[in-house]
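Example record for the data management plan.
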Amino acid sequence: MWQSLQDLGFGFGLALEPYNLFWCFVGVLVGNLIGVLPGTGALTAISMLMPLTYPMQPVPAIMMLAGIFYGSQYGGAIGAILLNLPSHPPHAVTCLDGYPMTQKGKGGTALGLTMMSSFFAASFGILVMIFASPLLVAVAFKFGPTELFSIMLLGLIAGSTMSRGSPIKGFAMTVIGLLISTIGTDVQTGTQRFTFGMPQLTDGIELVSIAMGVFGIADFLRHVNRMKHINSPGSVSLRDMRPSRAEAREAFFPMLRGTLVGTLFGAMPGTGPTITTFIAYALEQKVSRTPQKFGTGMIAGVAAPEAASHSKTQVDFIPTMSLGIPGDAVMALLLGALLIHGIQPGPRLLTEHPDVFWGLIASFWVGNVMLMVLNVPLIGVWVKLLQVPYRFLFPAAIFFIAIGAYSVNNDIFAVYEVLAFGIFGAVFMALDFPIAPILLGYVLGPMVEENFRRSMLLSRGQLSTFVTHPISGTILGIIVLLLAAQAFFAIRKRMGKGGDPLPIPPSDVVA
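Corresponding structural encoding:
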């Protein structure tokens, strides 16, 4: 432990050098701004700015790119809470309760809770990186394709039961997301699947198109006749942004549980932050005394997934830096940046390039403090967006959505995809189907398929491999218990033994 503290001091010495500090600030500022814009995210920003790092030294280069990554996490929550637009897929869960809080005039409170949860979770994740890296790396080595398939299957099952409505509808929307993920070219065989002869679908459906369509455009279509702006807190001061003691107490345990969930999944290579936020949200719904209120503006529904996302973001660097195994596409880009500078990620990184490893860890704390300072004065600006009339807000947001979708591949077909998914989402929302499980099924679909195939190849087609592996068998047992609990409560409710039926919130009544 003493050696780790000494190494951390060495890292702070590097991170606080004026040149390195400047590029860390640039990264978090750009990430924060990019995260707010609909249709963009860390992946797009890092892809565009990576060429700028070629002439730079490795330490400031990786600090800037990492700052864009976790800075966009802060910014993405702003769009999800204020406009129901998840710029980054993990924030799709934040929309479920963050946006209803905005509709109740508590948008500033939701942003304040997000900032608090994010800083707490990021700080915890940094401490885990410092003191528990060897243990987490050892755990990561125990997760092969069999274990990864089981944990992702658990994520699909848990995520599909998030909705306040029928679990069957949740499962159905998850399956739709899985089917959408199969569109395109099969990586292993090169066979085109479900493209219907359209060359634009050869590479599959863009994630941006689905997220912006089913969350952004669908909400606009449902509220197109609304002429008044959202309830606004009016003149917003720093005091308005500060949660009350009761709200902070209510958020503490969800924030703590979300942080632990994010830390656990951060140690597992190959699992992105999206599954983490879905599972954190599902966990809060299961432990809550009022699960039927989720989706109507629950503080736990904002604090838990945001904490999970930020702790996952920090801990995700452990398998990326120590094993060279990226958790998602953004981590893959960061690995590419290290390779460009002649640094090989892996177990030797800590000994061969301690300046990069410890400088990066120290910059996490420095960058998160910068984000806190930046967001305190800017948070009032974001809340001011609530005062913009819908007749101006909707066309502007749709314009940015179209630009964001088009900019991914410079293809107008992506804009048509956004429109199609927007209509699709509006129809199913009107039929009281949950929308979020679609995104979960789409994101996890390719990884579930890939790890299932690998497991079958390694076991020579024996399905029993998922049971004989201890970790995988334990996870499958949890899945069975979860399904049994869902069936029990559904039967109990149908037989009338669950007490008086709960009233349906007015927002759920379909006109």
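Summary line stored alongside the record: The first helix runs from residue 2 to 15.
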